[in-house]
Amino acid sequence: MGRPRTNDADVRERLIACATEMFATRPQESVTVRALATAAGTSTAAVYTLFQGKDGVIREVRDQAVAGLFQDLTAVPGSEDALEDLYALAVAYRHWGREHGHLYAVLFGGAQSFAPSTQVGDRDPVRPLVAAIDRAVADQILAGDTTWIAVSLWVALHGLVTLELAGGLDGTAAETAFRSTIDAVLRGWATPAAFPGLRLPDPAP
């Protein structure tokens, strides 16, 4: 009898799926190569053959998360109003995070660290956000450094999504918190002339 295959596409996908769930639900150091292989129904050799070890698995899971978030944010249609685009991007980010809780946890929950950078890659999920902020600054709606405006908005979004995934916010409270928080962040960076127009109508009770 021949040796079982350890490097086919099915094994690779099982390992990535198991790793995504495991890294999202337990401390990173507790996820061993053996535990990962057992969960995926394969051998430790497969992990090393396909990913060169645990670090390679983490990179692959994170890369898939980044690609998925980038795809959803770049799919948001643009308009002539940079402010409307920023709200639409915030909505899309929140939706992706809630729909892909395990991937979100791997991307921003400790399995990989995140450090804001002035260097934005071509397929960086923050690129559509930065582009909309650049437009808002050029249109004199927002004033400030684009990077730090983006960081402020991301911090708010990350806090909101994390609370929702943890069950700390739901229903009407989540909707109200989302709208009011994003509104407050944008008003904080608004130019004096644009400030009156940066408040959305209060949501219906």
Would you kindly provide a written description of the structure presented here, covering whatever features stand out?
Residues 9-69 form the HTH tetR-type domain. It comes from Streptomyces halstedii. Residues 32-51 bind DNA. Keywords: DNA-binding, Transcription, Transcription regulation. The protein is an all-alpha fold and 205 residues long. It is 63% helix and 0% strand. It contains 9 helices and no strands. Helix 1 (9-25) crosses helix 6 (101-108), helix 4 packs across helix 6 and helix 7 (127-138) packs across helix 8 (146-165). The longest helix is centred in the first third of the chain and has 21 residues, at 54-74. It is elongated and about 65 Å long. The model has no long low-confidence stretch (mean pLDDT 84).
Question: Could you spell the SSE succession in H and E letters?
Answer: HHHHHHHHH
Shape: elongated
Oligomeric state of shown chains: single chain
Radius of gyration: 20 Å
Secondary-structure class: mainly alpha
Average of pLDDT: 84
Question: Which parts are unreliable, with pLDDT below 50 for 5 consecutive residues or more?
Answer: none
Number of helices: 9
Q: Sheet bearing the most strands, described?
A: none
Fraction of residues in β-strands: under 5%
- Would you report the number of β strands? 0
| Measured distance between first and last alpha carbons | 68 Å
- Percent helix: 55-70%
Pfam families: TetR_C_33, TetR_N
Protein name: WHG domain-containing protein
Keywords: DNA-binding, Transcription, Transcription regulation
InterPro entries: Homeodomain-like_sf, HTH-type_TetR-like_transc_reg, HTH_TetR, MT1864/Rv1816-like_C, Tet_transcr_reg_TetR-rel_C_sf
